[in-house]
Design a protein that fits this description.
Layout (H helix, E strand, L loop, with lengths): L5 E4 L1 H13 L5 E6 L4 H8 L3 E6 L11 H6 L5 E7 L11 H14 L2 E5 L26 E6 L12 E5 L2 H13 L5 H8 L6 H23 L14 E5 L5 H10 L3 E2 L6 E2 L4 E2 L13 E5 L4 H17 L3
Parallel strand pairs: 2-3, 2-4, 4-5, 5-6
Antiparallel strand pairs: 1-7, 6-7, 8-12, 9-10, 11-12
């Protein structure tokens, strides 16, 4: 990539919002695969864009539907297909075949293909994330990669991201947007210049830790009666089906009514999990699902699994 193909942004969020603004007119549509990161809705509303969700299912690990199903959802208003790979909230890592299918669809229908790749390093079980960067030469005018420092360096507070494209019109447009807000944070940019000195061993260690946490969470969830879960392939999230009719009510109950006695401190504890319905664009989907982020250390993850098991046994649906 050359310098003119990269626009520095104030976080990955601004990169996404810039991309929406650059490629869409008001009321244009962008295809997304649900469940998807809920904040995409905010960027769509700000830019008067409509997200068109296509359902993926827990039964096959939330992998993409067929080309035929995707193409059925393309209309005259469709301007782009947008993915997150590895995926938040599902933990899915899309295969090379899936990426090639999306590139084929983008070429056939002259659609932009946007890829949010903030979790690029977090792919497990010897899987490798297939980046849209690999297809930049094949679809130079259609591919847009969105990225951020926040996940790989655990720097969510440092608001610095990027938008990458070989389309000169797109890059010219987002530069004008960036000029209108002057600059991303100077301190953040100075900090970022030093991150190239971070050794690969740091990333290897962090990835190993998250993979171990993933293994502990998955094994523990599989032991809980009625829980439906697939083994997350990347990022640090998973969508889990619970034996309840309304996961949002259950999540509220965990915080307001349920308490688990702590053997060590004599105090009481609970857990906080996110109802998954907010990650769907289609009404009434994900009603019995939750998103779990395995960002706790392994000791606390094991305790949280015990708390969840006990809570499900006591919950009166």
């Amino acid at each position: 990539m050359k310098e003119e193909n990269i626009q520095v942004t104030t976080g990955g969020s601004e990169a996404i919002s810039m991309a929406f603004f650059a490629i869409c007119e008001p009321n244009d549509e962008i295809i997304v695969f649900e469940p998807f990161y809920a904040n995409y809705n905010s960027y769509a509303v700000i830019n008067e864009v409509k997200l068109k969700p296509i359902l993926t299912r827990i039964e096959n690990g939330f992998h993409l539907p067929s080309q035929k199903i995707i193409e059925k959802n393309i209309t005259a208003k469709t301007k782009a297909i947008f993915i997150c790979n590895p995926n938040n909230p599902t933990g899915t890592v899309y295969t090379r075949q899936e990426m090639e299918m999306l590139v084929k669809i983008a070429k056939k229908h002259k659609l932009f293909l946007l890829s949010d790749e903030v979790y690029r390093e977090f792919a497990y079980d010897n899987k490798k994330q297939v980046s849209l960067l690999e297809f930049m030469e094949e679809i130079p005018d259609l591919a847009i990669v969105l990225d951020s420092l926040s996940k790989r360096y655990s720097l969510c507070g440092a608001r610095l991201g990027m938008l990458i494209s070989k389309n000169p019109e797109i890059m010219s447009g987002v530069l004008r947007i960036a000029q209108s807000r002057l600059s991303s944070g100077l301190i953040d940019q100075i900090l970022a210049t030093k991150l190239t000195e971070v050794k690969q061993s740091y990333f290897d260690k962090v990835k190993r830790e998250y993979e171990l946490r993933r293994d502990v969470l998955y094994a523990g969830l599989k032991k809980i009666t009625g829980v439906k879960v697939f083994k997350p392939e990347g990022a640090f999230y998973t969508i889990v089906g619970l034996p309840v009719s309304n996961a949002e009510d259950f999540c509220k109950w965990l915080l307001t009514d349920f308490r688990f006695p702590s053997a060590g401190s004599g105090q009481v504890e609970t857990i906080m999990i996110a109802p998954a319905q907010g990650f769907y664009g289609t009404k009434n989907m994900g009603q019995n699902e939750v998103r779990i982020a395995y960002v706790l250390n392994i000791k606390d993850l094991k305790k949280s699994l015990r708390i969840l098991k006990t809570a499900l046994e006591k919950y009166q649906d």
